[in-house]
Amino acid sequence: MDDAGRMPTGWVRDAGLFADYLRLQRRRSANTERAYLTDLRELALFLQGRGVHDPDHVRLTDLRRWLASQQASEAPATVARRAGTARVFFGWARETGRLGTDPAAGLRSPKLGRRLPQTLTQTEVRELMDAAAAAAAEAGGVRGLRDVAILETLYGSGLRVSELCGLDVGDLDEARGLVRVIGKGDKERIVPLGLPGLRAIDAWRAVRDQWVAPASANALFLGTRGGRINQRVVRRVVHESMRAVPEAPDIGPHGLRHAMATHLLEGGADLRSVQEMLGHASLSTTQIYTHVSDERVRAAYKQAFPRA
Question: Does residue 235 carry a catalytic annotation?
Answer without folding.
Answer: no
